Description:
300 residues, alpha+beta, 5-stranded antiparallel β-sheet, globular
Amino acid sequence: MPVARRECEFFLLQYVPDPVRNEFVHVGVVLREMGGPVASVRFTSDWRRVRCLDPEADTGMLEGLESELRRRFQEEPDGNLMHVLEDSFSNSVQMTRGKAYLAESIETGVEELMRMYVEPQKRERVSRLSGRAAIQAAMRTEFERAGVWDLLRKRIAVAEYTRKGDPLRIDLGYRPIGQDSGTIRMFQAVSLETSSGVGLETAKALAFSAPALVAGVERVEKAALELTAVVESLRQGLGTREQGIASRRPRKLDDEAELDSERVTAYRFAVETMEEHRIRVLTTADLGRAAETARRELRV
């Protein structure tokens, strides 16, 4: 038998960097049953279209606003949507007028609307993510799967713990509930793609900042800090050219000695440098375990 569809109403969220020019990119969806409270809010996890429109866009702020918007809608389920948006976003994110939509379920409806309006051909685009963007996308995927994404702090300003003017921001963090509350866990995406030296410099910068950050967290939060760098695996860390060469070799690459020795040395230098400064290093393959630990420690 056909599945009965619910009468719903949806709103598109648009990033508008300059209201005068009236240029925008769809970044999210709000969906609710017709006349009912807000049931779901979803933002994109691929910000390339936003950066194409506005290279200086603060995507970390937008990710944080997604969590803020969900919180506000939970607190004011029957509140005026436009009022909540104005309080949360000022003019940088605007909402379209509501449109009718028939959905099998709220979750299915949101997925369909995201594909239609916000993330068309998502699979093709995601496959081309690279560098920090790819690691950040993997982090979000795993923490969302564990159900803790909205409970995490995002874009944590290191200046809160070191001194004014420190530009570094840490991607994610949380404080466990209960007996482990004496430790704060933070996660930073660090790309070690070795086709450029940027990743290595990023690793060195994080290592340089770690001691002051650890001391600052202990002083301000009265807690120890576990700082984790999330990197690609060694093979993923190869540049595009090296991966192409590797894919054409007749034998499977099982031994790291088979890889370009200079690239391997650079990758290992970055990892060892961070570890020497008491930074835990995980690869994207380890994110599932880290997210599961967060789920337990946040008691979700």
